[in-house]
């Protein structure tokens, strides 16, 4: 059984004060995604070109992220490294 790359998913993470949209993009499996940032116009064009299905915001009807594997690259903004 292979991954159907025709299925594409977007989950909006944040609408930033500077106007950018932070979102996750996945092909085939929503659990395997990349984190992207685009201006709203580019985001709309990206979603239309990829014919994405929008996923609900994290935490709505899904498992919690209280485990070690739930870390995201965007979380590094809030972390101090020594």
From TrEMBL:
InterPro entries noted in UniProt: DmpK (IPR010353)
Pfam families: Phenol_hyd_sub
Protein name: Phenol hydroxylase
Organism: Zavarzinia compransoris
